[in-house]
């Protein structure tokens, strides 16, 4: 076998069948992760819930898989919510986040009875209460709290630090105004709290610290307002393998430490342990995906660098240019050939920052060879754009060695569809 196999498929054959660039996802891998959530978290600890953070990768088919495996979903926009609705995802299993949910989005969520709305700032409660009253609906909310922790990850994907656009700041004043408001609402019921401290975290230290901060808050609101925290949502953020020094850990590495800490802290404060929610995104789908490109122009700057250009780049994967994210790549039709060259993989956009991988070691290549970039299942398709009016790639799902198209390749006419 001279070609790379992925999820039981010859990837070169898929590239020829569907053309490139092409996103490929392994359903078997996704299901394995979702079952790990069930077996190692939900079944091992009582009073727990898990939702998949759909911002990482969402299509109707993905929503169906998540629901079939019995996991809920976190959405952050009307578009994600609408996708879930169209996939007949049960609305009560949805948690709606966002630091600036619009009135239209809140109306859509409340009209359709989403399970929880995570309130990101105090005034948002007025909007929710007004809509709930108008529609005569009961809305269950959690407060997103910014615990004031700086996580060891790229600055742009830290979320729980003091100076963050997300969440209610943890100060005497903000907590008392939030609690006083919440406890006086008629159609809106506060059930507890939420935190999310950042993404692609390779250790559990800050999750543990955040639990300590949140249990202190639970104790405070019990003493001051008689409020019993029924739910605590601990966010996601679990890291995956991208390159040599970034590795995925088992779910239990994070969740066991969360559960041990919450039990310990609740005991010490004499609190009843609330229902614990987790919401991983990247960890579920990141390693389930790869992207296939065709190699085109090859330019050697003697003594300096060789640029190998591919037929995609920044529009299908903006992460290297946004976060300096590192990826591994392989020449999928030459996997047994000796890597002899160090090259730079350049995207095709009119943008110097459109470099997918710096200094990749590969065999000698020519126009028409295929490059596979690994671990592109999370925040690639979901963050893709039409920059330079480049159509988005198709998405193919592989299940037990069989491929099927789940998102069609965009055409130039798709790009023009809304032009008047
Ligand atoms: N829950 C909340 C409230 C979040 O804000 C996020 C991610 C998650 C869960 C899921 O985080 P995960 O388990 O996937 O780390 N575009 C960036 C990632 C942004 C994540 C923002 N929030 C990237 O490509 O790295």
From TrEMBL:
Reaction catalyzed: meso-2,6-diaminopimelate + H(+) = L-lysine + CO2
Transmembrane segments: none
Keywords, sorted A to Z: Amino-acid biosynthesis, Decarboxylase, Lyase, Lysine biosynthesis, Pyridoxal phosphate
Cofactor: pyridoxal 5'-phosphate
Catalytic residues (positions): 350 (proton donor)
Residue numbers bearing the N6-(pyridoxal phosphate)lysine modification: 55
GO biological process: lysine biosynthetic process via diaminopimelate
Amino acids binding substrate: 282, 319, 323, 351, 379
PANTHER family in the record: DIAMINOPIMELATE DECARBOXYLASE, GROUP IV DECARBOXYLASE
Protein name as it appears in the record: Diaminopimelate decarboxylase
Originating organism: Tissierella pigra
């Amino acid at each position: 076998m001279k070609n790379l196999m992925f999820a039981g498929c010859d990837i070169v054959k898929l590239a020829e069948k569907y053309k490139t660039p092409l996103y490929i996802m392994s359903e078997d891998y996704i299901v394995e992760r979702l079952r790990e959530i069930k077996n190692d978290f939900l079944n091992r600890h009582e009073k727990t819930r898990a939702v998949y953070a759909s911002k990482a990768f969402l299509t109707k088919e993905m929503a169906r898989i998540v629901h079939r495996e019995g996991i809920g979903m976190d959405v952050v926009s009307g578009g994600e919510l609408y996708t879930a609705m169209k996939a007949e995802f049960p609305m009560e299993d949805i948690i709606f986040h966002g630091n600036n949910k619009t009135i239209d989005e809140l109306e859509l969520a409340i009209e359709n009875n989403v399970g929880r709305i995570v309130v990101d700032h105090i005034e948002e409660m007025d909007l929710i209460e007004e809509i709930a009253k108008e529609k005569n609906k009961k809305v269950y909310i959690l407060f997103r709290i910014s615990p004031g922790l700086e996580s060891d990850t790229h600055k742009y994907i830290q979320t729980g630090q003091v100076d963050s656009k997300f969440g209610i700041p943890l100060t005497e004043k903000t907590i008392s105004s939030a609690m006083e408001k919440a406890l006086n609402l008629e159609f809106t019921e506060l059930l507890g709290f939420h935190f999310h401290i950042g993404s692609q975290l390779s250790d559990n230290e800050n999750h543990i610290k955040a639990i300590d901060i949140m249990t202190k808050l639970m104790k405070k609101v019990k003493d001051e307002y008689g409020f019993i925290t029924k739910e605590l949502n601990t966010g996601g953020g679990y890291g995956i393998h991208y390159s040599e020094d970034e590795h995925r850990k088992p779910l239990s590495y994070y969740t066991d430490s969360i559960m041990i800490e919450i039990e310990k802290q609740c005991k010490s404060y004499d609190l009843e342990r609330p229902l614990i929610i987790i919401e991983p995104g990247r960890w579920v789908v990141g390693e389930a995906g790869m992207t296939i490109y065709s190699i085109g122009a090859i330019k050697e700057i003697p003594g300096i660098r060789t640029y190998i250009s591919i037929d995609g780049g920044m529009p299908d994967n903006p992460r290297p240019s946004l976060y300096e994210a590192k990826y591994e790549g392989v020449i999928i039709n030459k996997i047994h050939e000796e890597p002899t060259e160090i090259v730079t993989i350049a995207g095709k956009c009119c943008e110097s920052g459109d470099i997918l991988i710096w200094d990749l070691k590969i065999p000698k290549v020519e126009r028409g060879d295929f490059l596979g970039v690994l671990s592109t299942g999370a925040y690639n398709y979901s963050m893709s754009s039409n920059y330079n009016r480049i159509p988005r790639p198709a998405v193919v799902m592989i299940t037990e060695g069989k491929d099927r198209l789940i998102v069609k390749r965009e055409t130039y006419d798709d790009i023009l569809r809304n032009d008047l």
